[in-house]
Amino acid sequence: MVNIDWKNLPFGYMKTNCNIRCYWRDGKWGELEVSDSEYINLHIAATALHYGQEAFEGTKAFRGKDGKIRLFRCAENAKRMQNSASYIKMIAPPEDLFIEAIRKIVKLNSEFVPPYESGASLYIRPLLIGSGPQVGVKPANEFLFLIFVTPVGPYFKEGFRPVDIVIARDSDRAAPQGTGHIKVGGNYAASLPGQEKAHGLGFSTVLYLDSKEKKYIDECGPANFFAIKNNSYITPESHSILPSITNMSLMELAKDMGMSVERRKIPVEELGTFEEVGACGTAAVISPINKIVDIEENKIFQYCQNHEPGPISKKLYDTLRAIQYGDLPDKFNWISFID
Ligand SMILES: *Cc1c(COP(=O)(O)O)cnc(C)c1O
Question: At what angle do helices 74-87 and 245-256 cross, to 10 degrees?
Answer without folding.
Answer: 130
